[in-house]
Amino acid sequence: MLIRHPRRGQAAVFVALCLMALLLVIAFATNTGIVTNDRIRMQEAADLSTYAVAYSEAASLNDITEANQDIAEAVRECRDDLTGHIWDTPCNCGPTDPWAEWQIELCKMEIDAAIYRFTSVASYSRTVKRALGAGRATAGANFTGTEAHTSFFEKFPGSPTSASAHWVSYALSDGWGGTFNSIAPFEQVQDTAFNYQFVEHCDECEVTGIAVRSTVHLPTWFYKDSQDPDVWVAGRVAGTPEKRFLDTDFRAGGADKGYFGASSMGGDDLLVSYAVAKPYDGSVGPTALPDYLRSGNIPAGWLYIGDSGWLAEETMVDEYRARMAGIQDDLAGPAAPTTLIALDGAVLGKSWDTSKFEH
Amino acid sequence: MAKRRRGQSAVETMMIVPLVAVTVLALYYLWSVIFASENAHLRAREYALHGERYLPDADGVRGSAPFSGSNYERADSTSFTFWATAKDESLGVFAAPDEIETTAIITSE
Q: What interface predicted TM-score (ipTM) does this complex get?
C-alpha cells in the first residue's frame, strides 16, 4: 500500500504538464506568426508611404519644371519681339527706342508673372507638405492606425523634408523680390541679357544709322547648385499591431528591446519600419552649365535672339519619376538617411542598427 | 499488482499521441496561413510598385502601378492612387477560409 499509493494520478499530472507545454508552444508560435506577418505589413506600409511622398514630390518637380519652362518661354518670346525687326520710331536719336522700351516693360511684366508662378508652385506647402499628406494617407491605408506614428523626419532640421531645409531667394525685374521655403535649393539666374537694334535718324541726330541698344539684364529662370539627390525622403512608419503579442522583455517606459523588432513606448508596443525613396530622372533647370550658358546669353551677332537660350531651356526636363532607394544609397543633401535614423533612434531611446535596413 | 499495471504505458501514450498530433497539425495550419498571408502581402507590394515587371506569371494579382515596360512612369499628378490585390491559398481547415487576399495602396487621398 505504501508503494502503490503515490503512483495514483501520476499520468494525469504528466498529461497536464504536457498540455501546458503544448499550449505554450502553440501560443508562442501563434504570436511569432502574428508579429512576423505584422512586421512584413509594417515594412510594406513604410515602403509604399515613402514611395507615395517621393512620387508626389516628383509630380511637384515636374510642375516646377514646367513653371521654369514658362519663364524661359517668356524670355524667348520677349527676345523674338525685340529682335524680330529693327525698331524705327520717327525722329529718334537714341540711345534707346521708345517703342522698344515699352516692349521691354511688357516683357518684364510677363517674365515677373512667370517668376511669381514659379515661387507659388515651388513653395514648401505646395510640394513637400502636400507630399507628406500623401505619405500619411498611404501609411494608414496599408496599416490601420499608423498615421499618428508616421514620420518623414520633417521635424528634423537636417532632413530634406524639413520646412527649414531649403530657402530660395528670388528677384523681380524692378529689383524687388523675397525668399520662400521650398523643396530644393533653387538659385535664380540674375543676368539674362536683352537688347535690340533701332534706327537713329533725324535732323537733330549727331549720328544716324542702325544702333544696338546697350544690354539689359533681368532675373529669369531657376536652377540648382547641387544635383538631384538632395531631394529624397526617409520615412518611419510605426504602429501597434492589431493583435496583442508576447513581449519577452517588456518594461513600461520603452526601455526594453521589444519582440521581433517591436519597441515598447510607455506601455504601447510599436512595430517600426524605415524606408527611403527619391524623385529622379528630371531636371528643373540648367544646373551643370557654365554661367553664360546657364543665363542663356549666347549672342547671335550683336543680338540676344529668342533661340539663344535654347541650351538652358533644353536642360529643363519635366520627366521626374520616383523610385525606392537604399538607406545606404549615395544620397546627397543636408543629412544622410543613416544619420536621420540614428537621430531618430536617439529620440526613441534606442540604437538602431542601420545596416539592417540596407537593401 | 504486476497484472494491474500492464497496459498503463499504452493508455498514456494513446492519450498523448492525439494531443501531439493536434498540436503539430495546428502548427502546420498556422504556418500555412502565415506563409500565405506574407506571400500575398509581398506580392501585392511588389505589384503596386512594379506592376507585372517582376511578377509576370503571378496568378491572382491585379491592380495598377507607376511602372511600365522597364522603368517607373513619369509622375503626372500630385493626385494619384495605385493599388494591387494579391491572393494566396492556405490549408483549408474546418470552416476557416483557404484563400487570403491582401491589398497594397499608394495614394494621395
A: 0.87
